[in-house]
Write a structure and sequence with these properties.
This protein is an alpha/beta fold. The protein is built from 21 helices and ten strands. The protein folds into two domains: 205 residues, Rossmann fold; 244 residues, N-(1-d-carboxylethyl)-l-norvaline Dehydrogenase, domain 2, CATH 1.10.1040. The two termini are 40 Å apart.
Length: 485
């Protein structure tokens, strides 16, 4: 299952619970193979200069330097991003910056990295501008979900491929740059080949993924990708984290902690030592790191089912198109009425002092916080497994992306900063579902966190196949942590 066949790159078999997957390792030593793997693509057009557009255009250009493949950026008329694109060397004078439809019409591979709602609104004119046989590239399956909901499809005769980095755009760029000295350092990515009329879709997708710096690439489908991605950002990647730290901060304050201590035990514990422990040693290691396994077990047992129920609800609403429609509807409102920031919550004012205390009094793995967080992360992984997702997709969307990309940024900038500055699709989902998670923790989990843990739940956690899957994926991780200074 989930195999990759390539005529250019060497594939490997990774053993996962219940079977195997085919993956491809990345590395700068493979860059010389990129033109061959692209099979006739000599001009890549990246439409959009948001976080992913910027990162991917720069990485692709750097990886393909010295070849006959050109990377260009296409922007809508009057785009405020044009100045930054020019600053980074994409200019009209050298033919690498232009109108988005002109770039789409003159490129062999057109990578669509504009905002989801904008892509839904403008896909028809982009498709109409494409050169015959040009490959359509995506980094998210949102457009497939939208096309399905309106009874439409991608244009016939065009390969449709996806490369989906499992991290935010800034991580894609930063880890690529750090990888100049550590071969293969970057953000893992999934690939999907949705339409392959010329038979070269897989090689092109692998070339694109390797050029972005992906340490390892795994296979999925476009539908599976958008389901896991959109659910994940509303759950453990963003929405659940927001709800969790707000609930715990309030809980610790009611219990008598001062504001900074409550902030350390909630936010700092999650984004710092809990994230690092999972990244270095896995989920089960967090339990031991608390120094109070009984408290961890009680919290885990109290939170697992409420979290699982919410993840399942989110999944259903993404799968039936409800969540996608809400994003498109919001685009109309937000044209004249921008979203308010969540950073106005009183707890975030404690962040500055908590950050200042890091060296003198660093946050520790709080057992209550750890139990709730790990229960939620495991609940998402279990729900994805029950829905048939591949293990690489499960551990990347539920664990690796969180602890190696998003949580380090939250530690450096704050959870509120991350939520207020993420993509519009993710931000809308976080604002909708974060309060639901907060209510579930406050009303369902925390009142039971002092009760004896259900022994069966803890045994299931310790024997969960997610530990084996995460360990297999961790072997492929380069020894480099993202720098967020």
């Amino acid at each position: 299952m989930h195999t990759i066949t390539s005529s250019v790159f060497r594939t490997e078999i990774m053993t996962v619970p219940g079977g195997t997957e085919t993956i491809v390792r990345g590395g700068r030593d493979l860059f010389a193979l990129l033109p061959q793997a692209l099979h006739g693509v000599r001009r890549i057009g990246v439409l959009g200069w948001g976080p992913q557009g910027r990162a991917q255009a720069l990485n692709l250009r750097d990886s393909l330097a010295g070849t006959d493949v050109t990377v260009s950026v296409g922007l809508r008329p009057g785009s405020a991003s044009a100045a930054d694109a020019r600053k980074n060397g994409f200019t009209e004078e050298n033919g690498t910056l232009g109108d988005w439809l002109d770039v789409a019409g003159t490129s062999d591979l057109v990578i669509l990295l504009i905002a989801d709602a904008a892509l839904a609104a403008n896909h028809e004119q982009i498709f109409a501008a494409l050169a015959p046989g040009a490959t359509i590239g995506l980094s998210h399956g949102f457009l497939l979900g939208h096309l399905t909901s309106i009874g439409s499809d991608f244009p016939a005769g065009h390969p449709v491929i996806a490369v989906c980095p499992k991290g935010m755009g800034d991580s894609v760029r930063r880890l690529y740059q750090q990888g100049e000295t550590i071969n293969g350092a970057g953000i893992n990515a999934s690939i999907a080949v949705h339409a392959d009329p010329d038979g070269h879709g897989t090689d092109r997708a692998l070339a694109w993924s390797i050029a972005l710096g992906s340490p390892y690439t795994f296979a999925t489908t476009l539908r599976s990708e958008y389901l896991s991605d959109i659910v994940g950002e509303r759950a453990i990647l963003l929405g659940a984290v927001h709800g969790l730290v707000e609930a715990l901060y309030r809980h610790f304050r009611i219990g008598g902690d001062d504001a900074v201590t409550a902030y350390q035990r909630s936010t700092e514990s999650v984004t710092g030592p809990i994230a690092r422990t999972i990244s270095d040693s896995g989920l089960a290691a967090v339990r031991a790191a608390t120094g109070d396994e009984d408290a961890f077990d009680r919290a885990y047992a109290a939170a697992y089912q409420p979290a699982r129920d919410l993840v399942a609800e989110i999944y259903d609403e993404v799968a039936d198109g409800t969540e996608l429609r809400s994003v498109i509807l919001a685009e109309q409102r937000l044209a004249t009425r921008p979203m308010t920031a969540i950073s106005g919550s009183p707890m975030w004012r404690a962040g500055t002092e908590a950050h200042a205390r890091r060296e003198a009094a660093p946050a520790v793995v709080d057992p209550l916080t750890a139990g709730l967080f790990v229960a939620t992360m495991t609940a998402q992984a279990d729900e994805f497994a029950a829905r048939g997702h591949a293990w690489s997709e499960i551990v990347n969307e539920s664990i690796i992306e969180a602890v190696d990309s998003l949580l380090p940024y939250m530690h450096a900038r704050d959870v509120a900063y991350m939520v207020d500055n993420c993509s519009r699709t993710a931000r809308l989902g976080t604002r909708r579902w974060g309060p639901r998670f907060q209510a579930a923790y406050e009303q369902l989990a925390l009142p039971l966190a002092d009760e004896p843990a259900a022994d069966g739940l803890i045994k299931e956690f310790l024997a969960n196949p997610v530990h084996e899957a995460l360990a297999a994926a961790a072997v492929l991780r380069p020894s480099v942590d993202i720098s967020v200074s």
